[in-house]
Task: structure prediction
Amino acid sequence: MNMYVALCAVGAEKILGNELKQLGYKLAGNSFGRVAFTGDNDALYRANFCLRTSDRVYIQMAQYEALDFDELFDGCYELPWQDYFKKDVRVVVDKVRSHKSHLDSEHSVQSMIQKAIYKKLGASWHMNTLPESGAECDIRVYIENDLITLLLDTSGEALHKRGYRSAGVLAPLRESTAAILLQEMLWRRKLPLHDPFCGSGTIAIEACLYAHNIAPGLGRSFAYEELAICNPRRALEIKKEEAAKIRTDVQSRITGSDIDASAIEKARLNAEHACVMAGRALQLIGSDAKIERPDFVVSNFTDLRAPYDEGLLLCNPPYGERLGDTAPAEKLYTDMASLFTDFPGWKLGVITSNGKFQHCIGKYADTLKSFKAGSLDTTLYIYNRR
Result:
């Protein structure tokens, strides 16, 4: 069994852990946006294909103690890097984080790790100089209380970049954050869902992927494809296995609205791309079934009325901090109180970094959930209404 580390938003570790357990992997601890787990070789592919709330998946290459740079170098040099990389690799130590450790110069750590890796590769392959003409492979280093953790990136671009969003709007919500919101709200596919500030449609599209059991990574490429340990045939087999799990026989009532007509146009385009990507995955297993698209309309939220007795309103209204002016956002929050009367019986979930939200909307939430959304400290306000 191999050790892996999945990254997520700080505060969402429990949700990511539940995802990993559902995939059949054993958790090995979590802290500050990192969840360690063990899995077989297939985890390299399946975790990248399937995780909705993770930002990246790494192979944990080693953990060892180092009090000085000699120990740092030696521990890194001992690893079988030649088994993981191709001979034209370009190794990049992209991030170093040090906390309460003797080795607190991140730049020096970065240089020493890169030197150790290249020296090991050169010695293993009997090459004085590596060509570095191939794909970039990234290494991340964490140092906590003198314990070194070396991670090899298998994802490449962050996993929240599913590949369907070709057109965005100002300050878009990350796809992985939208997936976290859906999990926190305990949403299920039979419950109607509406986003009254849908922007480019991220919440509704992520709900669509979840409702139809579409693995979010089926339409993109990953960094593991450039590693020597990658088995393309096995990766394709697992992709087909996940495609076979797509549910095309379920009905969902997923909708979104926005006052901005151009945003709605982009949301429709993004949803189309997402469903087309799922359709291509289905073609791998000989299916021409179609995925039901979310429905988007142009509307001010004040003009909306509940189409069903119960459902979920889930939204990411303007933060103010994101867009540079808090006053209009707080006025909007005050006006959002109308949703309680216009959607009786519906649950409401609102994510914002504005601490005045509850005061503005005039009601205290039943539950508060705090986590990072990009670089912002945000809170999800959950109102449970029957």
Remarks:
- Residues 261-283 form the longest helix (23 residues).
- The longest strand covers residues 54-65.
- The radius of gyration is 23 Å.
